[in-house]
Design a protein that fits this description.
The chain is mainly α and 397 residues long. The protein has 14 helices and two strands, in the order ααααααααααααααββ. A two-stranded antiparallel ribbon has the order 1-2. The chain binds fe (ii) ion (2 copies). The site of one fe (ii) ion has 5 residues, from helix 8 and helix 9. This is Acyl-[acyl-carrier-protein] desaturase.
């Protein structure tokens, strides 16, 4: 079942499962007497068609003695990283941006109507990108899991007092508001097919992600630095488009989320900066390693049960609308090279100097490749794709 089934809506043949006299629930292996009165599963109720493992398996690539680096940085992390979190009392909450369900029914309905009026003129293609961003946020359990695979910084108990674990839990708690707010806003707009969105989220969390970080916190923090800035750029651009499209509240929603992402980017980039200070060659090699692998977006395994190329198609729309583009990728790389002062880094091993040359010369190469790809795309007939998230309407890629 998906949440939207319990909130009214379409497709009564898939009505919420309620316990009926003929339904018996039992724990343990099914017995011959066990009967479920379930409707036949739709074609989409299969395991994600997307391969779960997408790279050669490489794990625990950080030499075990380097765990000490992270142990020795605990005091530093408490002093410089944890303060970048916002106290809960000072944090915004989704409720502040949404119609007030505690107001009188009339007032609440008016607020919902206003929301729907504001979103009425926003184009379908904008919703494709916003839904993709929301789904990316909603797969948050995967990201917390991913960070907790990193040796030396993982949360060893689930409530570990280590500053690394404290950061990860509180970061997750801050991020949790992003998906909640976007999801509720999108639901109330009525512009998107919540059932398909919910299925995509379920597929995505089931599929996981494979960023190639190998349980290695050097790689993990390079990845999160890049990734947080990518989400900052993307939410910033949807904020601008929402404003231009006539919804200043949605613009504020996306802008507020973007500000969180910026703060998170700052924290992760600060950690890499520190690693470059205490272990310049190790950190430089990690940056090059992640850039060679290319930073894959966290939702790269998304699937809605219909379109096996859903992520590719969503990314193409984001690229065309200018919400997140290959140019942004190169910009982020250049920004981080500048922030980490990689060009001026000294005291490197020969191998790390090679990594430095590779990383510092990469952005122009990415831009050139993209120019060629754009050229090829211009010569091709524009084609469009149906997105289940917007009731199978077609959007030009
Ligand atoms: Fe987020
Ligand atoms: Fe984030």
């Amino acid at each position: 079942m998906q949440a939207s089934r319990f909130l009214g809506g379409r497709n009564p043949s898939w009505a919420p499962l309620v316990q009926s006299p003929t339904t018996q629930y039992q724990l343990g292996p099914p017995k011959p007497t066990m009967r479920f009165r379930l409707p036949p599963p739709p074609a989409s109720a299969t395991i994600s068609a997307v391969a779960v493992q997408t790279r050669p398996l490489r794990t625990h690539s950080m030499p075990p003695e380097k765990v000490e680096v992270f142990k020795s940085l605990e005091g530093w992390a408490s002093e410089w990283v944890l303060p970048l979190l916002k106290p809960v009392g000072q944090s915004w909450q989704p409720n502040e941006f949404l119609p007030d369900a505690t107001a009188s029914s009339e007032e609440f309905f008016d607020q919902v109507r206003e929301l729907r009026d504001r979103t009425a003129e926003l184009p379908d293609e904008f919703f494709v990108v916003l839904v993709g961003d929301m789904i990316t946020e909603d797969a948050l359990p995967t990201y917390q899991t991913m960070i907790n695979t990193l040796d030396g910084v993982k949360d060893e108990t689930g409530a570990s007092p280590s500053p690394w674990a404290q950061w990860t839990r509180s970061w997750t708690a801050e991020e949790n508001r992003h998906g909640d707010l976007l999801r509720t806003y999108l639901y109330l707009s009525g512009r998107v097919d919540m059932l398909m969105i919910e299925r995509t989220v379920q597929h995505l969390i089931g599929a996981g992600m494979d960023p190639g970080t190998e349980n290695n916190p050097y790689l993990g923090f390079v990845y999160t630095s890049f990734q947080e800035r990518a989400t900052f750029v993307s939410h910033g651009n949807t904020a601008r488009m929402a404003k231009e499209g006539g919804d200043p509240v949605l613009a504020r929603v996306c802008g507020t989320i973007a500000a969180d992402e910026k703060r998170h980017e700052n924290a992760y980039a600060k950690i890499v900066e520190k690693l470059l200070e205490v272990d310049p060659s190790g950190a430089m090699l990690a940056i090059a390693d992640m850039m060679r692998k290319k930073i894959t977006m966290p939702a790269h395994l998304m699937y809605d049960g219909h379109d096996p190329k859903l992520f590719e198609h969503f990314s193409a729309v984001a690229q065309r609308l200018g919400v997140y583009t290959a140019d942004d990728y190169a910009d982020i790389l250049e920004f981080l090279i500048g922030r980490w002062k990689l060009e001026k880094l000294e005291g490197l091993t020969a191998e790390a100097r090679g990594a430095q040359d590779f990383v510092c010369g990469l952005a122009p190469r990415i831009r050139k490749l993209q120019e060629r790809a754009d050229e090829r795309a211009r010569k091709m007939e524009p084609h469009s794709v149906k997105f289940s998230w917007i009731f199978n309407k077609e959007v030009v890629l």
